[in-house]
Specification:
With 451 residues, the chain is α/β, with parallel strands linked by helices. The protein has 18 helices and 21 strands. The radius of gyration is 23 Å and the shape is globular.
């Protein structure tokens, strides 16, 4: 039997944020160096890894449900492991589930994966947080991004790990450790590898990207270095924190076409009382001053946000303050959630979850309704206008249509240009075309290309 036939096969399922997606690529890189290969399906894998999220209760429940659904694979001999934030946060609970797992590995312990490959019936728990781990010896390259097949045009690149903010509702500092920034030279090297492989756009990742700092090189300097030293056509980033958003970054975005005019700026609440309880270190007035500066300086900018309703002690007045702030900020899009208590956070230990589920749901429905109306109105402003769109892929629903994004990141679905018909998608990704917008939804512009 040859070496290839002896190779164990692994399969990774990812839940949660883009940072988890990136960590799954790191795990893939580590495993492939240990004479293992990616399995085509979960059923054919010897090692099954669920890379998990602990930010919301629903995310954790999905993982428990998935574990129960693959118990037959464990009985057939597959090893099942939990990676990511859930592994860090509920490590002991995972071993007590009816379908117990073989190992749990926190986000800072992925280098231990090769040890898991050794034949052993012992349960393994490796969840020590690190102040220095950046996985610089296991950075994903273009082959990992293409194997993942999420996108042939856009890739994630982590510029930092961990978080020092300790917002009262957030589990991230306890599951991903303290903040540390990557060497900018290695970030640029990684990006150049991706662009040489055909990647057109990169999304820079961090829990608070605007606090990036490596030997006095800050986030603004990093973006300038990327613009000067790579051929990237588009640079995105997520997520910044409103409390220390660098104003010089806004000026750079206003003048640099490649630095996409799209900012995800988490509000969380429009009530100053709730913001203080959340330990967000800004007021709604501070937030609105920042969004005003952004909109005044950056043409056609797209601003999205995160909002939590039903935080402990939030009353009707606090909720109305949030609705009012969202209206004034005039967000293009929002990710909206009802508060769910996370074990181990400051809020879980100090703020009683005293808003009923019924009230949370009522407020969530109202905030979603108003935001969808706002998003639709903003999208409708593009009807009968011609916009420049970079092609990213086929439309999900129709292979005769293409999908792409404007210079502000807004998604556009449009008819296949005549000149591009019958060409492989790999050859047209990254091309820019002009699209006449004919109609819209709350999330997408729809039109036809006349190039």
């Amino acid at each position: 039997m040859n070496q290839v036939q002896n190779k164990k096969k692994f399969f990774i399922e990812t839940y949660g944020c883009q940072m988890n997606e990136y960590d799954s690529l790191i795990a893939q890189n580590i495993l492939e160096k240990e004479n293992t290969e990616k399995a085509p399906s979960i059923e054919s894998a010897d090692i099954i890894l669920l890379n998990t999220c602990a930010v919301r209760e629903n995310a954790q429940q999905k993982v428990y449900n998935r574990l129960r659904s693959i118990i037959h694979l464990k009985k057939k001999g597959a090893k099942i492991g939990i990676l990511g934030c859930m592994a860090q946060n509920v490590k002991d609970e995972l071993f007590n589930e009816k379908i117990s797992v073989d190992f749990v590995i926190g986000p800072d312990s992925l280098n231990a994966l090769p040890d898991i490959l050794q034949e052993s019936n012992e349960k393994i728990k490796l969840v020590k947080l690190s102040k220095t781990e950046l996985y610089e010896n296991h950075i994903p390259d273009i082959t990992h991004h293409l194997k993942d097949e999420k996108s042939l045009s856009t890739a994630y690149v982590a510029i930092q790990r961990g978080c020092d903010n300790f917002c009262s509702f957030c589990i991230v500092p306890y599951t991903r450790g303290r903040e540390r920034s990557r060497n900018p030279d290695l970030i640029i090297k990684e990006i150049n590898n991706l662009t040489e492989g055909g990647i057109k756009s990169v999304i820079l990742l961090g829990q608070n990207v605007n606090s990036y700092n490596y030997k006095e090189i800050n986030f603004h300097h990093l973006i300038e270095n990327i613009l000067m030293n790579t051929n990237l056509e588009r640079i995105y980033f997520t997520s910044p924190h409103p409390k220390d958003f660098p104003l010089e970054l806004i000026d750079l975005m206003a003048k640099e076409k490649r630095f996409i005019s799209m900012i995800h700026l988490p509000l969380q609440s429009g009530s100053n009382k709730i913001l203080k309880l959340m330990k967000r270190n800004y007021t709604s007035e501070d937030f609105l001053r920042l969004t005003d500066i952004i909109r005044n300086k950056v043409d056609d900018v797209f601003i999205s946000t995160d909002v939590i309703v039903g935080y402990p002690s939030e009353d009707e007045t606090d909720f109305l303050d949030t609705l009012d702030t969202m209206q004034k900020a005039n967000f293009d899009a929002a990710f909206m959630f009802a508060y769910s208590e996370r074990m181990g956070t400051h809020a879980s230990q100090n703020h009683k979850d005293n808003v009923s589920l019924e009230e949370k749901q009522k407020r969530l429905e109202e905030i979603i309704k108003q935001q969808l109306e706002r998003s639709s109105k903003k999208n409708n402003l593009y009807i009968n206008k011609t916009v420049e769109v970079m092609i990213e892929d086929f439309s999900r629903k129709n292979k005769n249509e293409l999908s792409g994004r404007m210079l502000n990141g807004r998604k556009v679905v449009f008819s296949m240009p005549e000149k591009l018909k019958n060409k492989p998608i790999e050859l047209i990704i990254g091309s820019s075309v002009n699209v006449l917008i004919e109609k819209t939804t709350s999330s997408t512009l729809l039109g036809k290309s006349f190039d």
